[in-house]
Amino acid sequence: MSPIESKINRLCDLVESQDKEIKTLHQERRTSRAKEAEAALADAVNAGRIVPGDTSTKAFWLSALLRDRESAVKALEALPVNPVLAKVTDGDDPKSGLLDKMHLQQKKLAEVQAAHPGADFQTIFAKAQADAPDLFR
């Protein structure tokens, strides 16, 4: 191989390695910008400027933050804070509390029945209710 070919090969290798490094840096920058945008969006939600469950509004602001973070942050900060939104949650299943309570009631009834195996249901229920009155309201 001639010296010129050797230099060309080294230069090609150098260009390839720098190209890979540039691609890696671009990916890291995109990831960093996405994290910053999500953090700014979370701050706006926590401040009560955006409704937590409004996915279309969140998507709009996330897109705006990725396009022009500085302007979008200023616009988000200019939105009025709604104190009611600070109390809004994504929510749970409304029946989950009842199901949890029913599970606790069943557990208590099983405890009492284990302690008094020969007792009838009314007696077991009365004893469980006396032991944990808040559970059976």
What key attributes describe this structure?
mainly alpha, single chain, 72% helix, 5 helices, elongated, 137 residues
How would you sum up this structure in a few lines?
By secondary structure, the protein is mainly α. The chain has helices at residues 3-47, 55-67, 69-78, 96-115, 121-131.
Biggest sheet details: none
Task: Summarize model confidence as the mean pLDDT.
Answer: 86
Helix content: over 70%
- The number of helical segments is 5
What gross morphology would you assign?
elongated
The radius of gyration is 31 Å
Extract low-pLDDT stretches.
none
Give the helix/strand class.
mainly alpha
SSE pattern, N- to C-terminal: HHHHH
Strand content: under 5%
First CA to last CA: what distance? 91 Å
**Would you report the number of β strands?**
0
How would you characterize the overall build of this protein?
The structure is a single chain. The chain is mostly helical. The protein is elongated, with a radius of gyration of 31 Å. It has 5 helices and no strands. The model has no long low-confidence stretch (mean pLDDT 86). It is 72% helix and 0% strand. The protein has helices at residues 3-47, 55-67, 69-78, 96-115, 121-131.
Secondary-structure topology with pairs:
Layout: H1 3-47, H2 55-67, H3 69-78, H4 96-115, H5 121-131
Helix pairs in contact: 1-2, 1-3, 2-3, 4-5
